[in-house]
Amino acid sequence: LLEGANREFRGEKVGAWLNLKRALFYPLIARPLRARLGLAACRIAVTGGAPLGPEVFTFFRALGLDIRQVYGQSETAAATTAHTTGDAPPETVGPPLPHTEVRISEEGEIQVKGPQVFQGYFRQEKATEESFTEDGFFRTGDAGFFDERGHLVILGRVKEVGALLDGTRFAPQFLENRLKYSPYIREAVVLGHGRPFVTALIELDPENVQNWARKRGISFTTYLSLTERPEVKALIAEEIRMVNQTLPEKLKIQRFAILPKELHPDDEEITRTRKVRRQVVEARYGPVIQALYGEGGRVEVVLPIRYLEGEGRLEATLEVQEV
């Protein structure tokens, strides 16, 4: 069920055999689970607030639930855009609602005009004035863009969005989340602020990539040896290409390198809740980042590692890959 939902999200062919298995397992697994969750009679589920992670979206789709995302603020009566029937890709929040105008300003801000937009803040004339443009559009404070389908894609808050060297708006977290839609990528550190193009440092999902390699008879011994396999590099390149298909030209990831070790809290590379410590990672992989924006090739790195018995070092060679 999960594999079928994943393939649908990724635009891949599901296949007759997998569809048959989904039809067999739905009444045995999905239907009882939906009932346990109180969703047996639910036809459409709508989510707002922060975007759902890919695992959550995939889980509910695998249960056969028509789950959709909406976007809006309290100032817009909670809804500005929404997914429609049969057109609910998890990376977007849908097209604008009827009679609603949504535009992207030169600064990349999403601005809204429509009958659901409020008139102003109670007894706060200055705040009200600052919240609207001269031609009456509400300033959401969010950054985004429209994809080729006319769906709105949220990048994040305008104040948190950086820019490429040419001024193109750039939101690392947005691209990192898109990369982590792949079952083979557990973590990503996307680079590009103040630089000419976008690149990424990739942490493999060990379990999924190991299973992928075993099924294809690809030999490996450790996580490091897995990252060095040309087949794995080609796999990640293809995963990034699939993400690039949904991105504007200037935001497409041009180069990447696979990290030789998993990011770990004990090495101060991520927090205990798996939030990347960007400054630490960029400092430790400084030579690799220079190669990503330089001549590419292979780069030697020496990384500190903490064990229960003490501290050690990992010496590895990373290779810059072209997407």
Features:
single chain, 323 residues, alpha+beta, Luciferase, domain 3, GMP Synthetase, Chain A, domain 3, 4-stranded antiparallel sheet, 4-stranded mixed sheet, 30% helix, globular, nucleotide-binding, ANL_N_sf
Main-sheet strand order equals 4-5-6-7
- SSE pattern: HHEHEEEEHEEEEHEEHHHEHHEEE
| CATH level-4 homologous superfamily of the largest domain | ANL, C-terminal domain
Q: CATH architecture of the largest domain, please?
A: 2-Layer Sandwich
Question: Which class of secondary structure composition applies to the elements?
Answer: alpha+beta
CATH topology name of the largest domain:
GMP Synthetase, Chain A, domain 3
Q: What is the terminal separation in angstroms? A: 30 Å
Q: How many strand elements?
A: 15
Low-confidence stretches at least 5 residues in length (pLDDT < 50)?
none
Shape: globular
Secondary structure: helix percent: 25-40%
Query: Strand fraction band?
Result: 15-25%
Describe, in plain words, how this protein is organized in 3D.
The protein is of the alpha+beta class and 323 residues long. It has 3 domains: 1-71, no CATH class; 93-158, Luciferase, domain 3 (Roll), CATH 2.30.38.10; 162-322, GMP Synthetase, Chain A, domain 3 (2-Layer Sandwich). It is 30% helix and 25% strand. It is built from 10 helices and 15 strands. The chain has helices at 2-9, 16-36, 54-62, 125-130, 172-179, 206-215, 223-227, 230-244, 278-284, 286-292, and strands at residues 44-47, 66-71, 81-82, 101-104, 109-113, 138-146, 152-157, 162-163, 169-170, 185-191, 198-204, 253-258, 298-306, 311-319, 321-322. A 4-stranded antiparallel sheet has the order 4-5-6-7. A 4-stranded mixed sheet has the order 10-11-12-15, sandwiched between helices. Strand 1 (44-47), helix 3 and strand 2 (66-71) form a beta-alpha-beta unit. Helix 1 packs across helix 3. The longest helix has 21 residues, at 16-36. It is globular and about 60 Å long. The mean pLDDT is 91.
